[in-house]
Amino acid sequence: MIKSEIIVRICRQDNMTGPCADAGKPFLLAPSATGSFSEILPAALASGTPRALYYFVELENRNGQSAGLINSVATLAGAPPSPVRGLTARMSNGVVLLCWAPAKPGEEPDSTVIRAYRKFLTQGPEKQEQRQQTLQSKQPEQNSVLEFSPASGCTVDKNIRLGESYEYRAQRIARVNVKGSALELAGYLSEPVRIRTVTVFPPKTPE
Questions:
Q1: What is the dihedral of CA 101, 151, 93, 146, to 10 degrees?
Q2: Using CA atoms, how far apart are residues 19 and 14, in angstroms rounded to an integer?
Q3: Residue 16, phi then psi, degrees to nearest 5
């Protein structure tokens, strides 16, 4: 049984064949203690195309003996996707139409998706019989996440109820397949846009 503190070393590789560079200074943990580690990536790893980055843990006893690198885990290095700009929301034929400004050429890899977050704000007034019908029917989720391709420049949210207010925010997500798992690197969230879902009737034509 190990009774003295354990020296913990963390290192990272930007590929599985290169050297494992130290990530921060070694630290001590008590035997059987749960450890955690975080760092701000250096500029070289926080820029460029999203790519796999592997972390390893090495434990040493007080005599400097180690079992070698263990517990590799993959995450993503690289620059985050560009923010979603110009997000708008308006009613169109009973659904919410969300649109945004396209990314600049080269800013959006093929693996990028747009993820929008809908937040329920207020509930509009309902008559008693309408409320009863709503309770008996399947209600749409008030807070939800939408995901879609950025190529279209717009998408629709059909899962809403008229007479209520919602807030939308969106971000670009870069995905990289690493050993069969899809890892994500998220961009910054957009400024929120709010909308009250009301039925928009076309203007009447003069008789």
A1: -90
A2: 9
A3: -80, 0
One-letter amino acid at 87 equals: L
Q: Tokens at residue 148, please?
A: 């879609």
d(CA 95, CA 159): 8
Residue 199 reports pLDDT greater than 80: no
Tokens of 67: 């079992």
End-to-end CA distance of the chain: 93
pLDDT digits (tens, 9 = 90+) for 144-160: 899 988 888 899 999 99
Residue type, 146: L
Six-digit token string for 128 = 């008693």
Helical residues (DSSP H) of the chain, grouped into ranges: 128-136
Q: Which two tokens stand for residue 138?
A: 């399947």
SS3 assignment, position 164: coil
